[in-house]
Amino acid sequence: xxxxxxxxxxxxxxxxxxxxxxxxxxxxxxxxxxxxxxxxxxxxxxxxxxxxxxxxxxxxxxxxxxxxxxxxxxxxxxx
Length: 79
Hints:
By secondary structure, the chain is an alpha+beta fold.
């Protein structure tokens, strides 16, 4: 799986997972199986990440999202 990205001050990382099995998903909503798949989406602000995550879970009801800060601290968990 992709390593955690290096983020700038205000940036956050959005990760998606299967809500039923907890498996990490890539940006194409496929189960992440190797390092070539992108599982973290870098977003410029927390507010923008919340909007994107809400859109993702609205369109994909079987997906949950986690938003991390640059220190890998969970800022938000959305279902």
